[in-house]
Amino acid sequence: MGQPENFWAQLSDQSAGYSVIIEDDGGKAYAYLLDAAGVMVSDVWLYNRGPAPETTDWSDPSKLPFSNPAEFVSDVAFEPVSSDSELLVEWKQYADRPIEAHLWVRGQLFAILQHGMVPGKSRLAVKDGPLAKVLEL
Questions:
Q1: Where are the beta strands (DSSP E) in the chain?
Q2: pLDDT value at position 16?
Q3: pTM of the prediction?
Q4: Given a cut of 50, is residue 1 above it in pLDDT?
Q5: What CA–CA distance (Å, rounded) separates 100 from 7?
Q6: What is the pLDDT at residue 63?
């Protein structure tokens, strides 16, 4: 039972016009929060496929999006997302702060993206870094 090499999904909030795109390029996965105009307003690393690299050359734009280095990544085994049915976005709107998208994977809160928060929070981040902040459960 092999995993697909790539995965892409878009989940939208019809009332606010926001959407979350989940993209797995076969090496790593990210979630992107888009506003009603389609502008990316937050992003977060979700997982690497395979071992995390020890270091990342942040200066090489040809490597975008980057895999998250080992010092920032949990060693918990995670099966990559392979179907839209594994995903749910819960939209949170508050009077005192920007819209949030809570991304659930297989029934577990996995990431939080908030308009203007870069990076967002990820369940598999163990240390705040340039690609994800720790999601405290």
A1: 7-12, 19-24, 28-34, 40-48, 87-92, 100-105, 108-114, 121-122, 133-134
A2: 84
A3: 0.94
A4: no
A5: 23
A6: 87
